[in-house]
Amino acid sequence: MKVKDIIEVLESWAPLKLQESYDNSGLIVGAPHWETNGVMVALDCLESVVDEAILKGVHLVVTHHPIVFNGLKKFNGSTYVERVIMKAIKHDVALYAIHTNLDNVAWGVNGKIMEVLGISNHVVLSPSQGLLRKFQVYVPVEEADALANAVYAAGGGKISAYEACSFKSIGEGTFKPIEGASPVTGSIGKQESVQEAKLEFIVPVFACQAVERAARGSHPYEVMAYDWIELGNTAAQYGAGALGEFEIPVDFMSFLHQVKSKFGATIKYTKPVNELIKTVAVCGGSGS
Questions:
Q1: pTM (whole model) above 0.90
Q2: Do the beta carbons of residue 34 and residue 92 sit within 8 Å?
């Protein structure tokens, strides 16, 4: 398989457009067309990780933390970051990071923390804004369903736990083909009137290109009439942290022991509370 095949799967799960502005997730070393016979996964891209990948003949390492956050000015091996990059390039090992984009999906890092804690019914703690667009397109009525299905398949029309969402209104579209046009219907120089459907879809920013491409591929006209509108709506399934509830409330110390046991970690805590704990908020990484 190729590196790009694995990247497509990862980015369908945690799109790069969801990463924070300071982050450097994505393909850091290598090319999408490189071949790989497997994947090595690690938290950090240490020198020992790349050494093991080389030893095992693996040509793709996927880590949570990016090996490079800021630009490097030299490659002389004086730091472990430089040595990792040099070694990866020399041995055709691609390095890919899936960092804050994985933090910012409901089913990512925070969703996994909730799963380990035994909380299945949870939502995003701080939903993101600015991630949604409205796609409006005009199409002959008889072609509306086919175009809508193409948009759905490309990632449009999903709202929270619902999919295949759209709004359709019927109206009259007018146009006059001029010299150079190749109209599907109508004649050059003659005003035309056609019954059309206006379709509206909510689309996440990372699916906009695919949705527009799918709509163009399904649209019968030479020129597709459409609009993109930026929305201020929050995107319920994208953002930082997670918030959920235990089915059965637990006391404070029992909760601490549960966290310590399930995560195998040393924990710090504030003054214990006397009330039972039912609602829990989590935020993975330094985002807390």
A1: no
A2: yes
- Collapsing DSSP states into helix, strand and coil, what is residue 176? coil
Of 230, 152, 231, 167, the residue nearest 200 (C-alpha):
167
Can you list the alpha helix ranges (DSSP code H) found in the chain?
3-13, 47-56, 80-90, 100-103, 109-117, 144-153, 208-218, 252-263
DSSP 2: B
Q: Is the domain covering 104-126+238-287 a CATH 3.40.1390.30 domain?
A: yes
Which burial class, exposed, middle or buried, applies to 33 when counting CB atoms under 10 A from its CB (0-12, 13-18, 19+)? Answer: exposed
What whole-number percentage of the chain has pLDDT above 90? Answer: 86
Report the pLDDT value the prediction gives residue 184, as an integer from 0 to 100. 83
Domain 131-231 has CATH 3.30.70.120: yes
Q: What residue type is 85 in one-letter code?
A: I
User: Tokens 């109206």 — which residue?
Assistant: 171
Q: Where does the chain show beta strands of DSSP type E?
A: 26-29, 40-42, 60-63, 94-97, 122-129, 132-140, 167-175, 192-204, 225-230, 234-250, 277-282
